[in-house]
Design a protein that fits this description.
It is built from 14 helices and 14 strands. By secondary structure, it is an alpha/beta fold. It has 2 domains: 99 residues, Aspartate Aminotransferase, domain 1 (Alpha-Beta Complex); 232 residues, Aspartate Aminotransferase, domain 2 (3-Layer(aba) Sandwich). The longest helix is centred in the C-terminal third of the chain and has 16 residues. The structure holds ligand TLP.
């Protein structure tokens, strides 16, 4: 059997040998007592790297977003979220279930909301209206194929949020991909958000974990929310140890994943019928339109699975392919070759 090339997500990455070693050697304690030195070190590092006062380690990106919403809002509030955001699309209604808030969606262009539309969506102080208490941004933006939200767009939304006394939360699941693509320190992005959630377990290859960073008082509330959700972990230092390697080492190699995505996009764009907007290939994802090839996205994914190339479908005629540390440049060549063969191109 040929090697399976897994482009479903960067979440499929396995911990690196260096991570495994750090995990085996990790000094641990009971983190619910605040006594795990490795978790404490990871939290301090995450806060420092994002320019925030404090951070808390959570098992998943979803929990990171949800404890942030719990910490910033009250029941009956409204939060503004881009209409294709992960928080709205893929967190199983968490904001309604856990925080009792309703979501107001604002459409975006490649994930970026027009600041005027955001301002228009902020509720007036009126007896009939819910209180707008939070604006959520997502950088990079998953559903648009890993597009980077421009810094001036984030700045404009952050400034208007501050004028209205509203907090901004950044779903930065892949914020280090955004920083790499922009060629800036990640702090240049996180400065336009009061809180940020970022994942260690995606392109950064840690087996598990995300960090939520922000002002200390907010992080204390997020930590309490984590406990409510049953996310107070004990000797979590074995996981945090991999997270430290993720932040110190793996943030520096993401450019390579972006190059692989461009190579993949160029190769697939040359196949008749497949449609790729090269302007959206900005980080480690490629969205491929299948309509011109006369095949549904789900059918295309099923066909390629039989040829040993895995990816997910996103809409009826669009699939998403994600590059990462566990696929090499030669795997990209091979994936393109198998797609050509399967489509008879
Ligand atoms: N995204 C996953 C799937 O859930 C779609 C993926 O394969 O891309 N925010 C963003 C922007 C994300 O893309 C994800 C995961 C999360 C949050 C949630 O992270 P986890 O999976 O750790 O809960």
């Amino acid at each position: 059997m040929n090697k399976v090339i897994d482009l479903r997500s960067d979440t499929v990455t396995k911990p690196t040998p260096e991570m495994r070693e750090a995990m085996a050697r990790a000094e641990v304690g009971d983190d619910v007592y605040g006594e795990d030195p490795t978790v404490n070190r990871l939290e301090a590092l995450g806060a420092e790297m994002t320019g925030k006062e404090a951070a808390v380690f959570v098992p998943t990106g979803t929990m990171g977003n949800q404890v942030s919403i719990m910490a910033w809002t009250q029941r009956g509030d409204e939060i503004i979220v881009e209409s294709n955001a992960h928080i709205f699309m893929f967190e199983a209604g968490g904001p309604a279930v856990l925080s009792g808030v309703q979501i107001r969606t604002v459409p975006g262009f490649r994930g970026a909301m027009d600041p005027e539309d955001v301002e228009a969506a902020i509720r007036p102080k009126d007896l009939h209206c819910p209180r707008t208490s939070l604006i959520c941004l997502e950088n990079t933006h998953n559903r648009s194929g890993g597009c980077v939200i421009p810094l001036d767009n984030m700045k404009a939304i952050y400034e208007l949020a501050k004028q209205h006394g509203i907090n901004v939360h950044l779903d930065g699941a892949r914020v280090f991909n955004a920083a790499t693509a922009l060629g800036v320190d990640v702090k240049q992005i996180t400065r336009y958000a009061d809180s940020v959630q970022f994942c260690l377990s995606k392109g950064l290859c840690a087996p598990v974990g995300s960090l939520v960073a922000g002002p200390k008082e907010f992080v204390d509330r997020a930590r309490k929310a984590r406990k409510i959700l049953g996310g107070g972990m004990r000797q979590a230092g074995v996981l945090a140890a991999a997270g430290i390697v993720a932040l110190e080492k793996m943030t520096k190699r993401l450019g390579e994943d972006h190059e692989k995505a461009r190579k993949l996009a160029q190769g697939l764009a040359a196949i008749p019928g497949l449609e790729i907007d090269m302007d959206t290939v900005q980080t480690n994802m490629v969205m491929v339109g299948t309509k011109g090839a006369g095949i549904d996205a789900a059918e295309f994914a099923a066909l390629m699975k039989r040829h040993g190339v895995l990816f997910n479908w996103s809409t009826r005629y669009k699939v998403r392919m994600v590059t990462h540390n566990d696929v090499g440049f030669d795997d990209i060549d091979e994936a393109i070759r198998r797609v050509k063969e399967a489509l008879g191109a």
